[in-house]
Structure formats: C-alpha cells, structure tokens
C-alpha cells in the first residue's frame, strides 16, 4: 500500500463570499455552497478534478487544522490542460492579475522530468496560485 494522491487540502479565508465569487470566475465548482449558506454545513469546498480545497470561512474554529493557519497561508499549484496563452486569457477574462510567468518550472509529473511552464497569480486572501502547463 502507498500514498497515491491528494484528496483535499484546507485553507482559511477572511471573506468567504469574495473567495466564492473569485473561484467561480475562474470556472471552479463550489461544493456545498447552498448548505453552507443555509447554515447546515460549516465549510464549503472548491472542486479540482478528483481533489478539493476545503475552505474554512471567517470565524470558524477548527481543532483539526494547522495551529497557525491564517488567510493567505496557502500556495496551490493547479495543472492547466491547454496552452499557456489559453491560461493567460482565462485569467485575464476573469480579471485576475498575473504576477509572474509564463516561465519554466519543474513540476511533479515524471519526477520533475517533464518540460513545463508556470503562471502565477493571487486570490483575494493573497494565497499564491500557480498554473502548471506541461508541454
């Protein structure tokens, strides 16, 4: 038996509404949004393929998270399935500022042996977001 993938990560937010709107503009699905709004779920999550990001809304107290977790503490790398120019357009169309890239990077695929470039941006909580594009 072995660890084979990441199921989810968790991150706190200072403004859940702003974060939901940001990730929706980028095309992500928000899980449990209606339940969270209705008060029947403590958290919502951002779906990415078979993984997700659990979002801890402002004011939420959780005993099972990093003791120093605060909004802006997360660095996330997504994989973009397309050309760098398409990723740049998606970010531009969503009103997201690219802070670096595209530029060469070493990703995880094939033990870091596949050629890739990355594009960087930040979400409203200042989490670092990276889109890895393999060629």
Question: What would the average pLDDT be, to the nearest integer?
Answer: 95
Q: H/E order of the elements? A: EHEHEEEHEEE
Tell me the helix content.
10-25%
DSSP strand (E) fraction? 25-35%
Q: Please state how the strands of the largest beta sheet are arranged side by side.
A: 1-4-3-2
Kindly report how far apart the N and C termini lie. 31 Å
CATH class: Alpha Beta
Query: What is the makeup of the main sheet?
Result: 4 strands, mixed
By CATH, the topology is 2,3-Dihydroxybiphenyl 1,2-Dioxygenase, domain 1
Radius of gyration from the alpha-carbon trace, in angstroms: 16 Å
Q: Given the C-alpha coordinates, what overall shape results?
A: globular
Backbone structural class: alpha/beta
Count of strand segments:
8
Residue runs with pLDDT of under 50 for 5 or more positions: none
Can you tell me the CATH superfamily? 2,3-Dihydroxybiphenyl 1,2-Dioxygenase, domain 1
Count of discrete domains:
1
């Amino acid at each position: 038996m072995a660890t084979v993938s990441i199921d989810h990560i968790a991150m706190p937010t200072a403004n859940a509404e702003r974060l939901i709107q940001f990730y929706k503009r980028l095309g992500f699905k928000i899980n449990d949004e209606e339940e969270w709004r209705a008060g029947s779920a403590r958290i919502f999550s951002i779906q990415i393929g078979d993984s997700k990001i659990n979002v801890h809304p402002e004011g939420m107290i959780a005993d099972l998270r990093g003791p120093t977790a605060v909004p802006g503490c997360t660095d996330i790398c997504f994989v973009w399935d397309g050309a760098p120019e398409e990723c740049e357009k998606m970010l531009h169309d969503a009103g997201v500022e690219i802070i670096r890239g595209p530029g060469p990077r070493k990703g995880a695929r094939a033990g870091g042996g596949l050629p890739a470039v990355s594009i960087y941006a930040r979400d409203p909580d200042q989490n670092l977001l990276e889109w890895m594009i393999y060629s």
